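Annex B, item 7. Sequence and structure tokens for protein A, then protein B.
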Amino acid sequence: MKSRHPLKVLFYINLAIVLLLIGYKAYLNLFAPEFEALHTEQVARISDKLSGPGGFSFAVVGNINNSVGVFEERMIPVLNQADLDFVVSAGNAVSGGGEDKYRAIQGTLSNLDVPYLLTFGENEYDNFGSYRFYDHFGPHFFSIKAGDARLIFLDSTGKTPWQWQIRWLNDLLNQEPDRARFLFIGHPVLEPEQEAPFEQDDDFLQPAEFRQALLEAIARHDVDMVFSANLSLYSDQVRGNTRFITTGGAGGLILNDDTSFYHYVRVDVSEDGEISHSLERLEAGQNPVLSTLESLWFFIYSLFYVGYVNFILLVAVFVMISIKLYTAIFVEKDYYPDYDLDPQPWLSRPLRVAMFTNNYLPFIGGVPISIERLRKGLETLGDVVLIVCPRYRDQPPHEARVIRVPSLLSMGEDSEFRLANIFLSRIRKQLRAFKPDIIHLHHPIWLGSLGLFIARRLKVPAVYTYHTRLEHYAHFVPLPGNLFRNLISHELVKHFANKCDGVIVPTYSTEEYLRMIGVKSPVFIQPTGIEYQRLQEVDDEDIRKLRESLNIGEEIVFVSVSRLSNEKNIDFMIDAIDELRRRSERPFRFLMIGEGHQHERLQERIDKLALQEHFTLVGSIPPEDMATWYHLGDAFLFASKSETQGMVILEAMAAGLPVVAVRSSGIDDVVRHGFNGFKTPEKQDQWCERVQQLLEDDGLRKELADHALEFAADYSVEQFARDVREIYALTLASVSSR
């Protein structure tokens, strides 16, 4: 086993850190111990401290913004030594209204030795924070008695109607005319004389009617001091008998200049009611260069206000992005196969191969026939094959090395879609007893998923053959069609293929599709084999008898082989044949071989168009008789767009039939336009025109038939089995070298 690349290990460590931090955030929001109505406790502590006679002192701080580096580590120790009775936040104690922000500020404020009160400001309101403030601290506007003073807190965010607050304020102050009065409101009422950093109009109290009514109430009741935050500066203004102070230097983003600096405001109230205040600046003590660097750092730090959690979270995300970019740009990649792999040890001995498929014989379809041919070819080469598949009503009574799984759900007795009971323990037991060298998966869901699971448990390689374009089967899935067709089907194939050790595709266009959707597993291009020799061994007498039984005279015979299902585009051919009979006078018959859940509806459509003499639904034909039916035809017609290869097209060519098909991923690589047939867009006029050419031009039809026979000779079952066996050996060599 190869050791993990250190960068990959580092990437997953970072991913684990991110998941842990996200989990921690979820814990904070959902499971951390609750705290509520903290202001009740703080007010009681203030009342106890100021219960006797004498003056008191308190500090006002603004824009703490969950700062750890400044407020918690540098300012709180100063406040604890300043002989204060309590501390008031004038707003923006948190950097946002999230639960983690509130829990962080509660932890920070618990380091204070004195009580504290918070003003409901802009940041407290942000991110649905109003109900958190109410739960954790208390009402958005309130007042308390502190000694012989009244402290009033208003809501400036718009959460509480301003008209109600003004009425409440007037009633409150009319009752206590002689007390000292301090008012706290998050948004500044007056604009400062100096311009604040990053100042915006909505940083001030809004609307204008609220501001004017508040100024009138302040003047009428002789409020002594009004404190606000929300700006990163210190401003001291006097209007009438009231001092208006804006303080925003407790820890948020500042510039460390004469206007914007770290500070708090101390207020002293003497025993006889005299009020004084002082600006307490927190000196940085740095030279200009270091001051500039600190300002830059705190600008960055402001992005990660809530402790170190968001900081580490975002750093971890950026580290992961950096690692991904590094590996994308600098790590050398080799997109070519490893030519040093030696498959010979596995080619020189018989292999034990287990195959998992969601459909198999006796159900007739391209996938079951392909699997059966591969099984026979591998067994001819000496390998041992075990097939795990659904149970059917008419299955053979005794089958060697076939595990039939009963269905939990099936859409009719002969349906392609069966949900086999993948939960049976006997499947795993039989696989362990079989001891496969490799497991071959033929579908990316259900039994295919079980096969991949068992491969991982048995520690053997898993190879997946991409047979079918799942997006064309949206009508079978109980999900919105566009959702399955445009997203789920492609993601399902990509996810499954990338878990496999190798992917087999029949054509180059299919490989291109897988690469486009993001498949990174090794991809091997290997067309499905056909029984070329058997398709040559047809008795002319059997063909003559078949023509007579179908009452076919001198008509040109078109043949098609397909399941009668929506994704096979049968309606397109019915409409085209209806058009063709009007265009050409030459007699023809169209034989549609195959069965399916749309049989009754399609027959009704044929009857409605009176096409019975031209279009016949033949039904299901035993595989051993198909060669005769192919040779009955003069050309092969096809309109399905859900194929990854179109195996029936190769079989028709092996019988000497030129082809007219609708262009699609499974058609482009086998139909060479103008050489062995024609391929057209899904446009009825163009498709019908090419069919008319083969109907009326005997020479062209003979020329294309010869080329079709020559082209199909390269796709024998024998060569197919040898090529798949080499893919197995290369995959085993690759896995063993890891």
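Protein B:
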Amino acid sequence: MSTNTIIVLVAFVIYMGMMILIGALNSKNSNNEDYFLGGRGLSSWTAALSAQASDMSGWLLMGLPGAIYLAGSGEMWIAIGLLIGTVLNWMLVARRLRKYTIVANNSLTIPSFFENRFKDKKGVLKVVASIVIIVFFAVYTASAFSAGAKLFANVFGKGADDNTAYMVGLIVAAVVILVYTLLGGFKAVCYTDFIQGMLMLIAILAVPILAYFVTVQGDAGSVSKAVAQHGVENPAGFFSLVKNADGSPITWQSVISGLGWGLGYFGMPHILVRFMAIKSDKEVKKSRTIAIIWVILSLGAACLLGLIARGYLSETLTESNSETVFIRCIQQLFDGNFVLVFIGGIFLCGILAAIMSTADSQLLVTASSVSEDMYKGTIKKDASEKSALLVGRIAVVVVAIIAFVIAIDPNSSVMKLVSDAWAGFGAAFGPVILLSLFWKRFNLAGAVAGMVVGFVTIVIWDYIPFFEEGATIGAKTGVYSLVVGFALALIVAVIVTLVTKAPSKEIETEFEKVKKVEI
């Protein structure tokens, strides 16, 4: 092991040790509300950075820059869609969801909110929602584990094709995330997310700026000329939002699919629970401003990184290793004395921060769903707080094992895994959340129908090979499944609601109460 590798390893050990320590310091959870929502006491800064750090994951520092590195600015439509979705989610959903979950019998999870919102005494909607959470969070957590494994393979191994280093990285990432999630619960996750959100922002801002100055001061003299020297035949197309790197026009499917990513925000449980946990309405307003600024800076920097790296890196990456673009830039920038290498190691921890901040949140939401909604809410309604917490922690371990198995393949794409999970949650939960918050007439039948249709559409669109050579509908049409799934779920939910019985007077009164209450 080289001296540089040892220095970077030291930085990693210090960072991961800090995260575990935070988990240990926040290990006192007297009940499920403490463990799963931190007692609804998040401050504006913690809520904002925790929500956005848990949102972006390793995808921000690996998947998105990698896609832009290969295809150019045309991939930035995804970032634009995510920015729009973030703003709308904080503007429309945050305050109202927080109020409604308190009024609706102090709901601690998204499935329990659905049950309380519609007075679903049979628990049908809660069970369906819990199944959706378990299925798609297993896939989502797998993307984080895969990103962590690729980080270790490239930093401590021989590269993306080093299977041994990949497996070691996979084990380390899974174990560290499990330990502090199991120890501390929601508070530990949010406090670590706050630190990780700050580190992610510093790293993603610093690296493209430094790479830019190095590039323009080099022989090429400009980024445009530099990318031309690194295999881009049409630099104008590479830097255009409406053209591909080869000069061909961007298709309408690409634009709609990219913007469609923004629809996913309305259905992301690990983001929505942050809204539910903010301690006051006043803090929501502060959080909104902080979160939007963070997203603008981080998404913009991630896009710039992908573009600048194409001209900066001394090697040309391919589709198989393009998601390591951020890692390669750091290694090339911070190569020299002890101080430079250690700083580079801290910046590489930014990737680890992105990975951990999302995976821990997903595991915790899964635990809350299994513990509160399936075990205590359906299987054993008289279960004690202690036994429910134990079941939740067991669920964390089980889902982590499933995610580990999914991520074992070194060729698994972080971008693809995130895309699938994002579509699943966005289509199944997004329309139901929006209609629940803003339509008094919305009823249980419509909610169940919308959720099921959204879930099934994603499965059919993305996973079932209808065409030759195993091609799915999504691969054949080029249209992101979330766009189709969200639209169909919304339409079906509205139609079924209108043709079935209106909700009870109690439900309508509670809906009106949310608009008036100040919490």
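Comment on protein B: Residues 208 and 269 are 31 Å apart (CA to CA).
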